[in-house]
Amino acid sequence: MNIHEYQGKEILKRYGVRIQEGIVAESPEKAVEAAKLIMAQTNSKFVVVKSQIHAGGRGKGQIKGGTQRGVALAKSVDDVRDIAKNLIGNVLVTIQTGPEGKKVNKVLVAQDVYYPGESEVKEMYIGILLDRAKACNVIMASTEGGMDIEEVAEHTPEKIVKEWIDPAVGLQPFQARKIAFGLGMTGEAFKEMVKFVTNLYKAYVETDASMFEINPVLKTSDNKIMAVDAKVNIDDNALYRHADLANYRDVTEEDPLEVEASANDLNYVKLDGNVGCMVNGAGLAMATMDIIKLSGGEPANFLDVGGGANAKTVEAGFRIILKDPNVKAILINIFGGIVRCDRVATGVVEAYKAIGNIPVPIIVRLQGTNAAEGARIIDESGLKVQSAVALSEAAEKVRAVVAAL
């Protein structure tokens, strides 16, 4: 589950990580009120207005059809009003959103932290995620903050410091110090960075996050270390342990079909192909998508109805798949282990009749408990549904359907 920058900063603050303070606003008027309050509290003439969408690259992004950037420095209250008016309700296009962009529903009005002082201001990058190859969490840090980390990794990989953390042991003090040294910190800034890394890792672990990315991490002119941005992803499978974090979900930022699937307890991910697939089990879903590819088609989605496939879940799956205008055929591939194939077949027939005329060909491959009985139910239904038992048979029927598209 992705969350907004301001929500990620709320988590960080709870764990003692210094953040760039800010106030969320959903209208230009609220943004002005927030700016006045922040200016009074910080004794600053400037604030930063930051669009809140689930995508990176906001600073370089632009409002569709305009010139307004997704992150902008406001030097007056009037600037705040104008920037917020240009952002809220409009579509921001960044390198991560693609040309369709994302609608901005709110902005974060944040304090100006690039204030003058005796020491040099420095931007850095710190990210934490799971390295599956090593079965360890890894902290990645770079002196090149404020830039796309992918570009740094490609062109100057020597500027990235990596420290692998054994989950059974946790982050050790010497590892936090290695990162601080690697980022060139000295004196008070070094102590601040060690504390920053330690608290950041604690936040990552205790919230069951799959990623924490802070870009930039700022060393201020008075040697404070703070998170100026926060990109956070929480593991969906762990949300039952974090009711407070589950409330951070913003369905307006998600694909409507994925939201509908979630409401029906289906695992659905939209893809760009022309053959919809409905299966029970993630591994079988991957194999089914391979079948579609080898048959000359392209999978239009990943849809796992789980082990208890029935008429209700199959009907919900049908409705979701058919809302994708790119779908020209549907392959249902069910292994009858926990669930019997004849029950699935009955569910398919009932769902087909409930929906009415389905305008695309449907191939149902059933294997496992009562597979022959399930095929008989499909074949005798009188509906435009083709049955298959063997995987090769399903592949041939998909190939024929794809060839006719």
TrEMBL record:
It catalyses: succinate + ATP + CoA = succinyl-CoA + ADP + phosphate; GTP + succinate + CoA = succinyl-CoA + GDP + phosphate. Pfam families: ATP-grasp_2, Ligase_CoA. Its cofactor is Mg(2+). One of its GO terms (molecular function) is magnesium ion binding. ATP binds at K50, G57, R58, G59, V113, E123. Substrate binds at N280, G337, I338, V339. The keyword ATP-binding applies. It comes from the Bacteria. Mg(2+) binds at N215, D229. Pathway: Carbohydrate metabolism; tricarboxylic acid cycle; succinate from succinyl-CoA (ligase route): step 1/1. Binds 1 Mg(2+) ion per subunit. Keywords: ATP-binding, Ligase, Magnesium, Metal-binding, Nucleotide-binding, Tricarboxylic acid cycle. Its EC number is 6.2.1.5. One of its GO terms (cellular component) is cytosol. InterPro entries: ATP-grasp, ATP-grasp_succ-CoA_synth-type, ATP_grasp_subdomain_1, Succ-CoA_synthase_bsu_CS, SUCC_ACL_C, Succ_CoA_ligase-like_bsu, Succinyl-CoA_synth-like. GO terms for biological process: succinyl-CoA metabolic process; tricarboxylic acid cycle. Residues 9-243 form the ATP-grasp domain. It is an enzyme of class 6 (ligase). HAMAP family: Succ_CoA_beta. Succinyl-CoA synthetase functions in the citric acid cycle (TCA), coupling the hydrolysis of succinyl-CoA to the synthesis of either ATP or GTP and thus represents the only step of substrate-level phosphorylation in the TCA. The beta subunit provides nucleotide specificity of the enzyme and binds the substrate succinate, while the binding sites for coenzyme A and phosphate are found in the alpha subunit. Belongs to the succinate/malate CoA ligase beta subunit family. Heterotetramer of two alpha and two beta subunits. This is Succinate--CoA ligase [ADP-forming] subunit beta. It comes from Fibrella rubiginis. The lineage of its organism: Bacteria, Pseudomonadati, Bacteroidota, Cytophagia, Cytophagales. The gene is sucC.
